Amino acid sequence: MPQSLITRRAFGTVSAVSVAAVCAPALVRAQTDGAMLGRVTVAVGGQGVLYHLPLALADALGYFRVEGLEVVVRDFAAGALAQQAVQEGAADVCSGAFEHVLRAHVRGQSYRALVLQGRAPQLALGVSLRSLPAYKDLGDLAGRRIGVSSVGSSTHLAASLMLVRAGLSPRDVAFVGVGSGTNAMNALRSGQVHALCHADPIMTLLEQKADTRIVGDLRSLKAAQELVGSGTLPAGSLYAPQSFLQKQPAQAQALVNGIVHALKWLQTAGPADLVKAVPAAYLMGDRGLYLAAFGRVRETFSPNGLMPDDGPATALRILARVQPELAEAKVELARTYTNDLVRKARQKYSV
Q1: Which helix (H) or strand (E) holds 217?
Q2: How many of the other CB atoms lie within 10 Å of CB of 31?
Q3: What is the pTM of this model?
Q4: Considering the domain boundaries, does residue 35 fall inside one?
Q5: Residue 166, domain CATH
Q6: Section 260-271 average pLDDT
Q7: Which range marks the domain in which residue 211 is found?
Q8: The last residue of a domain, from among 218, 248, 270
Q9: Are residues 49 and 175 in the same domain?
Q10: Are residues 26 and 96 in the same domain?
Q11: Do 100 and 238 fall into the same domain?
Q12: DSSP string, 64-84
């Protein structure tokens, strides 16, 4: 597939605010002496993927530090492993899929989403043309190996949903945890797995190398709407144990302020701004490819960080499609998220 041409118009008009924001780290260092609120550790599954871009921008642009907070990001191969790190006390907060919050409540663990980063799964399913040259439809994946970041992660759920929609059962395939980044790509190219469900820019890179065919795509709002039928599907979020909210409310507010600030920056950022702001390693050696991938998912980032009123119920309903036992689960949805911190952040940054 030819690489998409990304123009400045496609990314929106670059405002003076967005240009100045690229220089924020230097300004912050000049204005802030140390992190007054101390250190918070955030666990992430696949730090370099676009799914976590708001977190990456808030960190790179110095938005956390201007709030008086030092944020340390710990990267894990998958979202399920990142949540495990929080559960075990190795991290304070997790950046990951909202469905992890719901699953935790079913297990009797009290987690709460603090701010929404994405409103669509931002994931795609690709088939290796080397391993399955005669591929016709999803039915051809029966008995095959599908790579996901890890079993139990959002990539696993997304692939399962696509299979169910095609009339298959998740039990008809073998899911293999392949991590993220080059490990995930190599697993597909080497034949370790026949298909891969993952995030961008990984899937765009595989697709543009012409050895992978995208057969399931959840990287747009339209695709997400087709998946859920009705309602809004929350995806990437920053979530934490209820105990963190109770013991460190100032730190929680500072985290949300940083993410909301980054989401506002994304509304007007141009391509030059983006490639300057994100760490070079995230570009995977190809700025054009990264920008093409970003163009595909840009609309799916939350414009303001608010959890939609129908979001938690929609997410639980979708989760029950692949885990029917959850349909009868008693989850107090109002306790799975809070919009209070986001409302305060929106007032501060006029979002």
Answers
A1: strand 212-218
A2: 10
A3: 0.88
A4: yes
A5: 3.40.190.10
A6: 96
A7: 123-218
A8: 218
A9: no
A10: yes
A11: yes
A12: HHHTT-EEEEEEESSHHHHHH
Total domain count for the chain? 2
pLDDT computed for residue 328 by the predictor:
83
pLDDT one-digit tens code per residue, 75-91: 998 999 999 999 999 99
What burial letters (b/e) apply to 283-314, b meaning 16+ CB within 10 Å?
bbeeeebbbbbbbbbbebbbebbbbbebbbeb
Block residue for tokens 């490990």: 183
The DSSP letter of residue 15 is P
223: in domain: no
Is the domain of 136 the same as that of 97?
Answer: no
- Closest listed residue to residue 199, CA positions, set 274, 160, 148, 238: 148
The verdict on 25 and 166 lying in the same domain is no
CB 339 within 8 A of CB 256: no
* Distance in angstroms (rounded) separating the CA atoms of residues 194 and 192: 7
328 domain residue, yes or no: yes
Q: Which residue has the tokens 């992890």?
A: 100
Pair (191, 51) in one structural domain: no
Instruction: Give every CB contact of residue 51 below 8 A, 6+ residues apart in sequence.
Output: 117, 118, 122, 123, 199, 200, 235, 236
Half-sphere exposure (Cβ direction) of 232: Cα atoms closer than 13 Å: 14
Same domain, 164 and 240: no
Please name the residue that has the structure tokens 């095609």: 166
End-to-end Cα spacing for the chain: 37
Specify if 82 maps to a domain: yes
Strand order in the sheet with 123-128: 174-177, 145-148, 195-199, 123-128, 212-218
Residue with tokens 């696509």: 162
101 plus 131 within the same structural domain: no
- Residues 147-206 pLDDT 10s: 999 999 999 999 999 999 999 999 999 999 999 989 999 999 999 999 999 999 999 999
B/e letters for 319-348, b = 16+ CB within 10 Å, e = fewer, are bebbeeebeeeebeeeebbbbebbbebbee
User: 241 has which bridge partners?
Assistant: 111
In the 8-state DSSP scheme, what is residue 128? E
Q: How far apart are CA 203 and CA 125, in angstroms?
A: 8
**Which of 218, 244, 276 is where one domain is finished?**
218
- pLDDT confidence bin for 18, thresholds 50/70/90: very low
